[in-house]
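pinned: reference chain
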Amino acid sequence: QVRLDESGGGSVQAGGTLKLSCIPSSYTFGRCGSSWYRQAPGKERELVSRISSDGTTTYSASVQDRFTISQDYAKNTVYLQMDRLKTEDTAVYYCAAPMIRQWGVCDTAHYWGQGTQVTVSS
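pinned: its structure tokens
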């Protein structure tokens, strides 16, 4: 059964840095890319960043120039480097990866991790 496990969350003061990791079980990151989402209490889940198989990245405006998504194929791990954290970044962060169909077709549906809490204090 596919699992995505996030780690690296915690509490940090504004301006600090955290690096999140997403380590899968029974799943190999590759051509379908991967994403990081976050959800703060009372708010909808928000796409934070996405990376494609060729390394192309996308970021939400709120994290642009502060967060960096990357993939290490050798380690089969996806990372989210978060710099200059703000209190507004406080949320549960989720790793997401597309389900894969026959012949490597990337599905719209995603696998989701359980999330890791990031708390930024002022």
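why pinned: The mean pLDDT is 96. The two ends are 40 Å apart (CA to CA).
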